[in-house]
Structures are given as structure tokens and as C-alpha cells.
Recover the amino acids of this structure.
């Protein structure tokens, strides 16, 4: 879980920082645009008020020039540095500007004859960090009526207002950044808590699966072997060989489950055959071999235990195709079954059974070598031969409880609740 916590922390932190990095400048931009829009709307509204008061909204009468001049004079020096008023044809009737407006006039881009129908504005950055807004307002005596003229004003945004807009935008951006980081900080413990709950439940399910596997293995052992240790030994040997061959995750879990349950079908074999001390005759052997099909039927559809099916179905197949029940050849035999075949024969030859004494290690290895390329996968056998002395030294003196401890360590290593 520690590695999961670390992974969750880094992923949530990465997402949080990324969102913060994207949202913060966006929030700053939107806030700045909104503040700018408010400044423009105020300027437009004030311009309409002054133009209405100066009777410069309807510029069609004989006194339109006088009214336009009066309005332009009133507008300059307050909100605007430059005020221009045009008639409906786009002819300039009046223009007034402050000294600063004269400086700005030469820096502003020229525009054509006004012909717009809706108010709008242009925001421009000029030299010496001067920020100006050019406001355009069509003049209409009545809402939705005919346009009788145009007002255009240029406003120099003062330094204090620029600083205020920037500070407000920065405050909003910092709030969004902080909110993003706090969101990630609050999400992390929730994710860890939910993951912990999920892991605990998965662990409970996994433990029940392993207990079921162990119970079935012990049930088989009580009918077949003298101590029940065989399933644990062969499962540990197969898993150790599987590790050396690179099996991981679900493949390793299936090998272990299959090793425990390889002979589960023997539950259906009569005791007279299963426990017979001597060799089986042909008819008895035919019955004994049905334990493969019976085992397949037992694990089929059994959910998690179905992973054992490869070993259960193919642990009596041989590399050269002389095995049973399907006479599979070479790589057509699942790798887990090829691994188990070596482990099973090794343990069968090395262990005491009702009908035989254990064989010496050298003799066991000689018999295995004779099966290279006929019974066993040569590559799997090569790996096992290299490991066999260490395997023998590790388990030859262990009793049933010792073998169970070894197998418990193996299960803990490969059956993880987060991957099961």
C-alpha cells in the first residue's frame, strides 16, 4: 500500500499542479477582461448620458454641429482624452482632445468612416506602457431606432486603475490556484481511504479463494498421499521454477492454484484404485486417467479457481505428444503445465508413497534427464537441473508445517490483493 500511496500522491499532485497551471492564467485573463469590460461599459454609459444632456444624440437638425461640439467639450478631460462625434453619414462634426490626447492621436491606428451598428471598443498598449481604450458608440435617439451619428472616445487608463485591474485579476488567479491545490489536498485522503477499503475487501476475497484452494488440496491429499505434504511441496517447487522462468502476476497465481488442485479430479476415483499399493492394470489405469476430465469439470466455472485449468487439464501431457488426455505436443502444452510436470515427477520420485520408498537424488535427476525432449520441455528441464540441488537442500529436511510455511511465503509474494 505504501507504493500505492506514493503513486496516488504523485498522480494527484501532477493533475492538481497541471490544472492549477492551466486554470490560474485563464482565471487571470478572464478576470482582467471582465474588469476591462466594466471600465468600457462605464465609459459608454457616461458618454451616452453626456451626449443626451447636450442634445447630441440626434444629429440631424441645424444645430447638430453646436450640440456635437458642446458634447465633445464636456466629455474631454473626464473619462476621455479624445472625443470625436460624427453624423449619420460618417462626417466628423466635432473633435476635442486634451494635451495627452494630442500625444496619443499620432500613436493610434487610423480607421475608416464609421459605419457600425453596435457599440464596441479596442484595447491597445502603446509606448511607455500606456494603455488606451478606444470606445465606439452608435447614436440612436430611441432604442432600436435609426442611427443618427457616432461617438468615438479614447480613454487613457491611469496607472492606478491599471494596477487595480492587475491586482484584482491576480487575486482571482491566486484564489483559483489555491482552490485547485486544496482540491487535490482534499481528494488525496479520500482516494487513499477508498483504496484502503477496496484493498481490505479484495484481501478478504483473496483469502477466501486461497482458503478454498487449500481446503480442496487437503481434501485431495487425505485421499491420495500419506501426509498431504505433496501438494505443498510440488506447488512450492513449481512456483520456484516458475519464478526462475519469469512467470509473474496472474500466470504465477494460476500455476500455484493449478499445482494445489492438479489432482482434484481424484476425488472421484474409487479408493480401491487410488490407494492400490501395486501397479494398476489397464482397466484401472483407464479409470485413473479420468481424474483429468473430472478435475476440469470441478474447476470449470469456479471463478478464480478456473485459473488452475491449464495445469489440471494438461499436467499429464508430454513434450513428444505421448501424454494424455489430448496428446498435445511441445509448445501446445501450456507453460504452467510443462513447469508442473517437471516439479511433479521430481517430487513423486523423491518422496515416499504407499507403494514405494523415496529414490536418491542422483537417480531422480537421471530419470528426469531421460525424459528430456520426450516427457519434459528441454528448456524447462535445463532450468530445473541447475536449481535442483538448492531445492533439495531447502526442503528435504522440512516436515509438513515447514513446507506450509515456505508455501505461505510464496503465496504472500505472488497473491497481492491489489492485483488479484
Amino acid at each position: 500500500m505504501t507504493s500505492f500511496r506514493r503513486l496516488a500522491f504523485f498522480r494527484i499532485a501532477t493533475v492538481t499542479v497541471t490544472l492549477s497551471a492551466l486554470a490560474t492564467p485563464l482565471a487571470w485573463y478572464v478576470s482582467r477582461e471582465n474588469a476591462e469590460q466594466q471600465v468600457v461599459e462605464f465609459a459608454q454609459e457616461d458618454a451616452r448620458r453626456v451626449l443626451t444632456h447636450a442634445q447630441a444624440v440626434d444629429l440631424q437638425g441645424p444645430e447638430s454641429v453646436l450640440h456635437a461640439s458642446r458634447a465633445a467639450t464636456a466629455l474631454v478631460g473626464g473619462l476621455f482624452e479624445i472625443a470625436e462625434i460624427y453624423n449619420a453619414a460618417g462626417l466628423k462634426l466635432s473633435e476635442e482632445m486634451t494635451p495627452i490626447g494630442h500625444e496619443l492621436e499620432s500613436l493610434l491606428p487610423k480607421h475608416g468612416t464609421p459605419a457600425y451598428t453596435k457599440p464596441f471598443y479596442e484595447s491597445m498598449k502603446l509606448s511607455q506602457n500606456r494603455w488606451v481604450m478606444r470606445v465606439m458608440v452608435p447614436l440612436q435617439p430611441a432604442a432600436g431606432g435609426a442611427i443618427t451619428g457616432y461617438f468615438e472616445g479614447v480613454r487613457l487608463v491611469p496607472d492606478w486603475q491599471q494596477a487595480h485591474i492587475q491586482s484584482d485579476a491576480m487575486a482571482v488567479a491566486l484564489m483559483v490556484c489555491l482552490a485547485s491545490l486544496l482540491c487535490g489536498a482534499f481528494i488525496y485522503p479520500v482516494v487513499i481511504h477508498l483504496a484502503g477499503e477496496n484493498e481490505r475487501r479484495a484481501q478478504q476475497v483473496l483469502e477466501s479463494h486461497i482458503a478454498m484452494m487449500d481446503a480442496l488440496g487437503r481434501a485431495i491429499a487425505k485421499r491420495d498421499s500419506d501426509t498431504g505434504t505433496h501438494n505443498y511441496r510440488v506447488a512450492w517447487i513449481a512456483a520456484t521454477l516458475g519464478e526462475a522462468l519469469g512467470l509473474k502476476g496472474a500466470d504465477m497465481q494460476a500455476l500455484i492454484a493449478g499445482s494445489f488442485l492438479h489432482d482434484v479430479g481424484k476425488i472421484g476415483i474409487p479408493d480401491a484404485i487410488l490407494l492400490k499399493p501395486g501397479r494398476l492394470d489397464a482397466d484401472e489405469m483407464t479409470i485413473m486417467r479420468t481424474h483429468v476430465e473430472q478435475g476440469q469439470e470441478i474447476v470449470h466455472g469456479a471463478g478464480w479457481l478456473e485459473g488452475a485449468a491449464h495445469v489440471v487439464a494438461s499436467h499429464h501431457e508430454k513434450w513428444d505428444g505421448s501424454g494424455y488426455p489430448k496428446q498435445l505436443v511441445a509448445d501446445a502444452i501450456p507453460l504452467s503445465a510443462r513447469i508442473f510436470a517437471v516439479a511433479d515427477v521430481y517430487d513423486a520420485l523423491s518422496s515416499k508413497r504407499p507403494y514405494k520408498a523415496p529414490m536418491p537424488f542422483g537417480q531422480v535427476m537421471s530419470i528426469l534427464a531421460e525424459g528430456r525432449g520426450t516427457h519434459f520441455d528441454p528448456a524447462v528441464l535445463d532450468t530445473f537441473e541447475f536449481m535442483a540441488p538448492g531445492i533439495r537442500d531447502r526442503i528435504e529436511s522440512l516436515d509438513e508445517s515447514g513446507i506450509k510455511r515456505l508455501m505461505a511465503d510464496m503465496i504472500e509474494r505472488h497473491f497481492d490483493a491489489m492485483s488479484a
